[in-house]
């Protein structure tokens, strides 16, 4: 018995030795991940972010240079001669009637297309989530099926339809097209988000005498704010940056900034003094909208993960 006890005592690992053995059994990838999970990863992400910003910075600096400077040297030369920066290109841009009118057309297309998709999508999403009506599930399946329909398939049929009803080449036609193709995703997104609202909360509001419209405005809309903000950002960016739909359904009087810049290239060649500031303005506005609603966007994306 004494010999057996001694052998068992020798076989038992020491506390420190056991911890070392556990560390030794960890994979090499896990140990490397633990070592680099600190400041090194943050530095790497900052460097990657700066590389992603290089084209934007280059476009901004190019828009602040004269056409002669842009033709003779690269935009990085401004760091050696910052005094040569000028707003001359932006002054010329504001004198270009096609560009200024196209910016107004872009706002007239983007704002209604975004507001209509958010409002109609919110109402339909609430109806599919909490209201009972005949064929609700089948109608929702039809909406989900519309998500896989590519835009290119509907261009010619809808162009013919708009031509017959007098909407082809107008701002209204472009807005309706964007609304039609933005609603399936909006309804799908908001319906799934609204369905996660506790039923008890809605039933308590109904017991207090709230109707469906008041319930939607006072309860569902505040709770669904992050998802609605995310949808609004997605729709705004998609419509603002679109060129395919606007190129087909708009004419010279209703074309947005994307088509106007493409027309400038076709007419005047490499007129970078107009294209650089126009492209930067076209890019900085959606960036400003995104950063303005960044917190709501992140909340809407994370809400689906934590519910």
The quaternary state of the protein chains shown equals: single chain
User: Helix tally?
Assistant: 17
Q: Radius of gyration from the CA trace?
A: 29 Å
Query: What would you call the shape?
Result: globular
Q: How many E-type strands?
A: 0
* Structural class by secondary-structure content: mainly alpha
Task: Please estimate the helix content.
Answer: over 70%
Which segments are poorly predicted (pLDDT under 50) over 5 or more consecutive residues?
A: 1-14, 17-23
Secondary-structure element sequence?
HHHHHHHHHHHHHHHHH
Strand content: under 5%
| Largest β-sheet summary | none
- N→C terminal distance: 59 Å
Q: What's the pLDDT, averaged over the residues?
A: 80
Key terms for this structure?
307 residues, mainly alpha, globular
Structure description:
The chain has 307 residues and is an all-alpha fold. It contains 17 helices and no strands. The termini are far apart.
What does this entry show, briefly?
By secondary structure, this protein is mostly helical.
List the helices and strands and how they pair.
Blueprint: H1 2-11, H2 15-25, H3 28-36, H4 39-63, H5 67-72, H6 88-95, H7 97-130, H8 136-146, H9 151-165, H10 171-194, H11 199-207, H12 212-223, H13 225-240, H14 244-249, H15 257-268, H16 272-292, H17 294-306
């Amino acid at each position: 018995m004494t010999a057996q006890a001694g052998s068992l005592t020798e076989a038992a690992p020491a506390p420190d030795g056991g911890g070392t053995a556990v560390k030794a059994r960890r994979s090499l990838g896990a140990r490397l991940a633990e070592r680099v999970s600190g400041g090194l990863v943050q530095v790497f992400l900052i460097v990657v972010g700066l590389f992603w910003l290089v084209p934007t910075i280059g476009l901004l600096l190019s828009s602040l240079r004269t056409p002669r400077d842009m033709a003779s040297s690269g935009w990085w030369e401004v760091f050696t001669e910052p005094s040569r920066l000028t707003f001359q290109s932006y002054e010329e841009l504001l004198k270009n009637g096609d560009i200024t009118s196209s910016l107004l057309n872009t706002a007239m297309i983007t704002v209604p297309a975004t507001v209509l998709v958010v409002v109609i999508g919110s109402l339909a999403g609430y109806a599919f989530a909490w209201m009972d009506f005949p064929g609700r599930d089948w109608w929702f399946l039809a909406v989900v099926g519309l998500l896989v329909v590519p835009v290119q398939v509907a261009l010619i049929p809808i162009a013919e339809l708009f031509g017959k009803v007098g909407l082809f080449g107008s701002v209204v036609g472009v807005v309706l097209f964007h609304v039609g193709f933005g609603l399936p995703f909006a309804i799908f997104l908001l319906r799934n988000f609204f369905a996660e609202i506790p039923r008890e909360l809605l039933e308590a509001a109904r017991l207090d005498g709230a109707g469906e419209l008041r319930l939607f405005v006072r309860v569902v809309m505040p709770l669904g704010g992050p998802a609605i903000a995310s949808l609004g950002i997605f729709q705004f960016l998609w419509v603002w940056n679109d060129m395919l739909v606007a190129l087909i359904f708009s004419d010279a009087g209703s074309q947005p900034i994307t088509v106007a810049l493409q027309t400038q290239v076709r007419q005047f060649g490499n007129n970078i003094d107009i294209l650089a500031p126009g492209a930067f303005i076209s890019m900085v506005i959606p960036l400003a909208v995104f950063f303005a609603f960044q917190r709501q966007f992140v909340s809407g994306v994370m809400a689906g993960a934590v519910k």
